[in-house]
């Protein structure tokens, strides 16, 4: 061990971090995807998980995962390109492609890995990537790993994007990338205008549907809800949120998926997803296809809670989805509000920089379709009391 490096850099940096309100610890939670969780021995209503449809413990998923593990074991044993392939993976990819109205799909070990695969396969140092300023970190990291030049446009500002595209008119290889639903704000991208700009400037269009998959567009995402499935070139998503499992995917044309399979570093150099995960993901996809109204129910109850919060005077930062932020500004305010809500029996995330920009700390509610009427009453009561006691 390099004791000089450890003592000179790591120890003081860790000590400095511990003394700030940006310091993070893993919460003392058991069964963190459940509707109710044990937090340090206290039962709380879980408004922090991305298990948007409550499928992680659904009997169909558990049965499918159990059958797959019983038949195939616990590990894939290698990369998909070596020996880590299963017929389950190929079936899942085929059904994902059909569900997304695309020619082909590729499953990856996570949504993060999916974005890394996209950009390491499709971009290089001759590419300019135009990215919404609030896009997920995995998009930014994928662009940086590819060696492409990153140009960030102001959040949802299509006028700014248009000017940046015009400025780079002589660049031949251009990609526009956006989240469809933004994970910390709960607002949605203006995809119709973005598609128009992409076509006008000859840019490849990549949309990450991580927080829309299973929820919007009868489960197919925002692109499907807006009738833009065929206009978007590359569809990225995750199996770990509304689908209640693990992994990511990319869907698009056959040639695009071939490039990812051969050049996507996070796909090539990762052990493939294990059989149980593949089984659960396939069961979740089929469940959503058979129950396309699940997301619509989630949107209805989300509007009820959002309207209540706005009525109390909280700033929900333009959210229109199941992700509802409550603006706090300072880190300390968000942490204090989070603690008060825990006392009311509600587990809500306190999101602070660097996850969000400086000065924009917030509470983040991640609502879920399996919330009961009593749960909704608890949420309304808890935030009403928070308003009275902490935001008078």
From TrEMBL:
<dbReference type="InterPro" id="IPR050087">
    <property type="entry name" value="AON_synthase_class-II"/>
</dbReference>
<dbReference type="InterPro" id="IPR015424">
    <property type="entry name" value="PyrdxlP-dep_Trfase"/>
</dbReference>
<keyword id="KW-0663">Pyridoxal phosphate</keyword>
<keyword id="KW-0012">Acyltransferase</keyword>
<dbReference type="Pfam" id="PF00155">
    <property type="entry name" value="Aminotran_1_2"/>
</dbReference>
<comment type="function">
    <text>Catalyzes the decarboxylative condensation of pimeloyl-[acyl-carrier protein] and L-alanine to produce 8-amino-7-oxononanoate (AON), [acyl-carrier protein], and carbon dioxide.</text>
</comment>
<keyword id="KW-0808">Transferase</keyword>
<feature type="domain" description="Aminotransferase class I/classII large">
    <location>
        <begin position="44"/>
        <end position="378"/>
    </location>
</feature>
<comment type="subunit">
    <text>Homodimer.</text>
</comment>
<dbReference type="InterPro" id="IPR004723">
    <property type="entry name" value="AONS_Archaea/Proteobacteria"/>
</dbReference>
<comment type="pathway">
    <text>Cofactor biosynthesis; biotin biosynthesis.</text>
</comment>
<dbReference type="GO" id="GO:0030170">
    <property type="term" value="F:pyridoxal phosphate binding"/>
</dbReference>
<protein>
    <recommendedName>
        <fullName>8-amino-7-ketopelargonate synthase</fullName>
        <ecNumber>2.3.1.47</ecNumber>
    </recommendedName>
</protein>
<dbReference type="InterPro" id="IPR001917">
    <property type="entry name" value="Aminotrans_II_pyridoxalP_BS"/>
</dbReference>
<comment type="similarity">
    <text>Belongs to the class-II pyridoxal-phosphate-dependent aminotransferase family. BioF subfamily.</text>
</comment>
<dbReference type="InterPro" id="IPR015421">
    <property type="entry name" value="PyrdxlP-dep_Trfase_major"/>
</dbReference>
<keyword id="KW-0093">Biotin biosynthesis</keyword>
<dbReference type="InterPro" id="IPR004839">
    <property type="entry name" value="Aminotransferase_I/II_large"/>
</dbReference>
<dbReference type="GO" id="GO:0008710">
    <property type="term" value="F:8-amino-7-oxononanoate synthase activity"/>
</dbReference>
<dbReference type="GO" id="GO:0009102">
    <property type="term" value="P:biotin biosynthetic process"/>
</dbReference>
<dbReference type="InterPro" id="IPR015422">
    <property type="entry name" value="PyrdxlP-dep_Trfase_small"/>
</dbReference>
<feature type="modified residue" description="N6-(pyridoxal phosphate)lysine">
    <location>
        <position position="241"/>
    </location>
</feature>
């Amino acid at each position: 061990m390099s004791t000089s490096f450890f003592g000179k850099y790591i120890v003081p940096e860790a000590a400095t971090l511990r003394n700030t309100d940006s310091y993070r610890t893993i919460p003392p939670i058991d069964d963190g995807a459940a509707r109710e969780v044990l937090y340090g021995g206290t039962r709380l209503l879980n408004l922090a998980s991305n298990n948007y449809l409550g499928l992680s413990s659904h009997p169909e998923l558990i049965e499918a995962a159990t059958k797959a593990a019983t038949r195939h074991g616990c590990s894939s044993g290698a990369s998909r390109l070596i020996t880590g392939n299963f017929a389950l993976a190929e079936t899942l990819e085929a059904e994902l492609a059909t569900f997304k109205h695309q020619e082909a799909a590729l499953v990856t070990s996570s949504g993060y890995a999916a974005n890394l695969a996209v950009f390491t396969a499709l971009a290089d140092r001759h590419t300019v990537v135009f990215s919404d300023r609030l896009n997920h970190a995995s998009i930014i990291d994928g662009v940086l790993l590819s060696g492409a030049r990153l140009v960030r446009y102001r959040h949802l500002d299509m006028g700014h994007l248009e000017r940046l595209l015009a400025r780079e008119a002589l660049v031949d290889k251009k990609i526009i990338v956006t989240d469809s639903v933004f994970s910390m704000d709960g607002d949605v991208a203006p995809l119709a205008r973005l598609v128009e700009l992409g076509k006008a400037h000859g840019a490849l269009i990549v949309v990450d549907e991580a927080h829309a998959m299973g929820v919007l567009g009868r489960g197919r995402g925002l692109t499907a809800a807006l009738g833009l499935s065929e206009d978007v070139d590359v569809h990225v998503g995750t199996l770990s949120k509304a689908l209640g499992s693990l992994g990511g995917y990319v869907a698009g044309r056959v040639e695009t998926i071939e490039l990812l399979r051969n050049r996507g570093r996070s796909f090539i150099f990762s052990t493939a997803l294990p059989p149980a995960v593949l089984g659960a993901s396939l069961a979740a996809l089929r469940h959503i296809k058979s129950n396309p109204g699940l997301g619509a129910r989630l949107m209805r109850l989300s509007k009820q809670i959002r309207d209540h919060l706005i009525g109390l005077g909280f700033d929900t930062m333009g959210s229109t989805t199941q992700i509802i932020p409550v603006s706090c500004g300072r880190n300390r305010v968000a942490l204090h509000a989070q603690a008060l809500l825990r006392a009311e029996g509600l587990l809500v995330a306190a999101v602070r920089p660097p996850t969000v920009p400086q000065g924009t700390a917030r509470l983040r509610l991640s609502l879920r379709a399996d919330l009961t009427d009593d749960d909704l009453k608890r949420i309304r009561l808890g935030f009403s009391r928070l308003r009275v006691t902490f935001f008078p």
